[in-house]
Amino acid sequence: MKKIPLRYYFWAACGLILLAVGIFIVFRIISNHNYVEAYNRGQYNTKQEEGLLTINIPEGYVPYYNLGNAYYRMGDYNSAIGYYNQALLQHPAEPKDCQIRINLALAMLKTIDFYGLNSQEKIDTALFVLYKARDVLTENGCASPEGHEGHNADAQQLKEDIDKLIEQLENPDSSQSSNNQEQQSDNSDSSGSSGSESKPSEREKRVQGELEEKKKDALEDRKGQQEQIEKWSDNAGGDGEGDVEGSGNGTSNIDPW
Fold first, then answer.
1. Residue 179 — very low, low, confident or very high, per pLDDT cuts 50/70/90?
2. Residue 148 clears pLDDT 90, i.e. is over it
3. What is the DSSP letter of 60?
4. 48, 174, 201, 227: least surrounded by Cβ within 10 Å?
């Protein structure tokens, strides 16, 4: 019996390996396609996508990104942040890197309750998150930290919006404190002039009215900040060419790949 050359065994083994890899890639593509279709119907089957994390080649960042989007849509922003960070660790190329960073920054912003910033501690925590989200966008040049254009228009716009939020929290209107001082001065003047007077003076009424207006303005600022985040929630993370003002053209959404 003629002996089969070893090179035939070698090529047969290579063929089997290539066949196995091909089958795996086809399985991965079909599985991911089914997940995306279910996602678009509002069905977030995270267990199905998690099955692709074991051997996630090629484009290993895709299942992490898709899972981040699913948890974002379900309102679990901390889980979304974790998956987006894992996606970045897979070293995605442009423009995918910036899209992941935009969604990561959005998930971070979603952890801030702008209506509940009623203490300095909460404001400081919000500022910490805002600066971290800003760093995410500028870290790889998607947005420029110096006001120049980064290499992704959506990331640059979101970074500038974050800068405005930081400015509002770091530099609140100082007139409220001055009005407080005015009111204290009025109280001391009125008490010194007549200890029996209990009715507020006209100036005290005016200052009190101004303070109430400041409270309303602060509430409107909080509402505006929250609406800004909501705008980005529906209009970011797409191909980097969408209308960041939310035109509804569907080119920029938190969609799976």
1. very low
2. no
3. T
4. 174
Q: Please compute the mean of the pLDDT values over residues 19-23 and round it to a whole number.
A: 68
DSSP state of 114: G
Q: If you write DSSP's letter for every residue of 137-174 in order, what string do you get?
A: HHTTSSS-TTSS--S-HHHHHHHHHHHHHHHHHHS--T
Angle, vertex CA 125, rays to CA 122 and CA 128, nearest 5: 155
Token pair belonging to 216? 């309303």
**Residue by residue, what is the 3-state secondary structure of 67-104?**
HHHHHHHCCCHHHHHHHHHHHHHCCCCCCHHHHHHHHH
Distances 19 to 10, 22, 52, 122 between C-alpha atoms, Å: 14, 5, 19, 56
- Give the residue extent of every domain in the chain: 1-92
Residue 44: phi and psi, rounded to 5, are: -100, 85
Ramachandran class of 34: left when φ > 0, alpha when ψ lies in -120 to 50, beta otherwise: alpha
CATH of 1-92, picked from 1.10.287.1080, 1.20.58.1970, 1.25.40.10, 3.30.460.80, is 1.25.40.10
| Nearest CA-CA partner of 238 in 142, 100, 122 | 100
Helix or strand (DSSP H, E) at 64: helix 61-73
